[in-house]
Amino acid sequence: xxxxxxxxxxxxxxxxxxxxxxxxxxxxxxxxxxxxxxxxxxxxxxxxxxxxxxxxxxxxxxxxxxxxxxxxxxxxxxxxxxxxxxxxxxxxxxxxxxxxxxxxxxxxxxxxxxxxxxxxxxxxxxxxxxxxxxxxxxxxxxxxxxxxxxxxxxxxxxxxxxxxxxxxxxxxxxxxxxxxxxxxxxxxxxxxxxxxxxxxxxxxxxxxxxxxxxxxxxxxxxxxxxxxxxxxxxxxxxxxxxxxxxxxxxxxxxxxxxxxxxxxxxxxxxxxxxxxxxxxxxxxxxxxxxxxxxxxxxxxxxxxxxxxxxxxxxxxxxxxxxxxxxxxxxxxxxxxxxxxxxxxxxxxxxxxxxxxxxxxxxx
Length: 363
Prior knowledge:
alpha/beta, UDP N-Acetylglucosamine Acyltransferase, domain 1
């Protein structure tokens, strides 16, 4: 008998809405049912019972969700098993099991089923997610399997148990993942690259021989070959670092493109910026990209030098070989080869410190 309904039993909504090693539990179950065909997916809250199901309508009672089950395996189990899969004892919940030809009477069905002995079954595929404990167990085991697979192809992990790589992420042989590194989604890491301690990569594209130092966040961004990031850098979505770019500690980028060999070594925000080749961005530089209504673009040509503590008020363009003096607020375009200075003239007051001390004494 082919199943017409699949029930998820005793799965808290906050559990099934989570992901395991990057795989959405609810989405996976829905895809599984869609692939089987002739099935509906109904989620029951813990303690609830199905109602108004005709006796002649076959179904599979699912006790929990199965984040790593495949449609092929499930279909094989359905074909070979004379009773329902993943079943729980329904009697305490008012369901007459004797009228359900597709219901197994106990939770140890798989332990006795010949299907388990005749199929090549990954233990993960048969592990149900039913509560917070199994959620943690499934995550831990899934990450362990992924780590083992990566090490077998030559990925280095000095302390492997503290590295977390999602199932869809790819790491090339010869790369190194340091303790606490987490690679989420469809992150790609090239050969010879190093992902530093505590760094989080989300759907990131990391080229070859890239050094991601400790405690960086790289989100939906691309880092080309030979670049270096961090420590404590934050690459927000839309960032693209070209070859041999250097982005240092406490630098934040968003929708920013840095050309080959450019550097932003520390304490800067580069948002909605297009930066050419061999540029130097001094400490404390900010692209003022938001005017309260629109996001505006800052563009720099090649070999531009931005002095420390400068503000580039977008929209603005700086030509090739332009210089910006430290402490400058740039509000107009700077032509190629020019020096921009926008700061008040310095005045030194002789004897000022002694004057202040004398005033303090008289008080």
